Amino acid sequence: MRSLALLLCLAQLWGCHSVPLGPTLAYNEPNCDDPETEQAALAAVDYINSHVLRGYKHILNQIDKVRLWPQRPMGEVFELEIDTLETTCHVLDPTPLVNCTVRPLVEHAVEGDCDFRVLKQDGQFSVLFAKCDSSPDSAEDVHKVCPDCPLLAPLNDTKVVHAVDVALTAFNAQSNGSYFQLVEVSRAQLVPLPPSTYVEFAVAATDCAAQETTDPAKCNLLAEKQYGFCKATLTEKFGGEDVAVTCTVFQPQSLLPQPQPDSPDAVNPTPVEDPAMPAPSLADLPAADLVVGPMVVAVPEVLLPGHRTHYDLRHAFMGVASVESASGEAFHVGKAPKVVQPGIVVGPGPVVRPCPGRVRYYKV
């Protein structure tokens, strides 16, 4: 009898330990190259490019990691780690991302490293959390593929500042339209042979005529912002210097959501004689009533680090610590969940890992 009683007690204790103490979220680990995963990653890249106010657009290069969480009362959340690459399209350039060229390694490539949480609800994707930083390729790696290629120079280098000033002056002297003011120095390289400085910079049209401006301080930016993007080389010569500058200008656009890269309404920028170029716009991502979205901050120039060679993505936006639904269920970083991994194939031969995914361009 005592043995039976002891057995019953042990069974009850085991039952108590078997009952979960609270609701536990379970996540899947789908394949990084799964089409739905890629859709979520592309929504994340659209978010980057709609919130970066300086520098260049980025494009998806690789999905490193993905977790798929259920989101009550409906929907699911993709927790992503992705790598991006800088393109040659400036953020003010309205060219659709699919038509932008990835900057090659020999031009000193820049890579982005991002963490995202993206909600899919009713077939639509919206960003809940975003955190990124970016960095140029190392000098050693650049010189492995191109020993004589110039590296990125600090944007506040005295030669860079001088080259931009000379190039912008030359552009305004040749212009029959608006007088342009400098918006930012975007990229610079010091070329040893022939001794020269290569620069890329963004400009904006003012209410002054280029051929009539005597005091640029009295010029004001137009109410409907019009932008341009310039590339210039200032070459040092015996007894002087030569400058070659070309600027691409675009028709102004109102601050409406940009078409997505695969939209049939997306068009290429149209150069015009009177300089003009649209301001960056917010991506057309649907707002979700049951989530708190990321906070977007515009970092003042004085807060950005000096002697930088590029505009780090970390200055584009800041993330939020958690996402909470209307039902009170929260999705927190660092929560210990149950794990389901349907994407791993087990059988004869090597184990097939679902992540990281394919490299679309090259590794930095």
TrEMBL record:
Its main location: secreted. One of its GO terms (molecular function) is cysteine-type endopeptidase inhibitor activity. Residues 1-18 form the signal peptide. Residues 27-133, 144-255 form the Cystatin fetuin-A-type domain. It comes from the Eukaryota. Residues 254-276 are annotated as: Disordered. InterPro entries: Cystatin_dom, Cystatin_Fetuin_A, Cystatin_sf, Kininogen_Fetuin_HRG, Prot_inh_fetuin_CS. It is found in: Secreted. The keyword Transcription does not apply. One of its GO terms (cellular component) is extracellular matrix. Keywords: Disulfide bond, Glycoprotein, Phosphoprotein, Repeat, Secreted, Signal. It comes from Leptonychotes weddellii. This is Alpha-2-HS-glycoprotein. The keyword Cytoplasm does not apply. PANTHER family: ALPHA-2-HS-GLYCOPROTEIN (PTHR13814:SF6), FETUIN (PTHR13814). Pfam families: Cystatin.
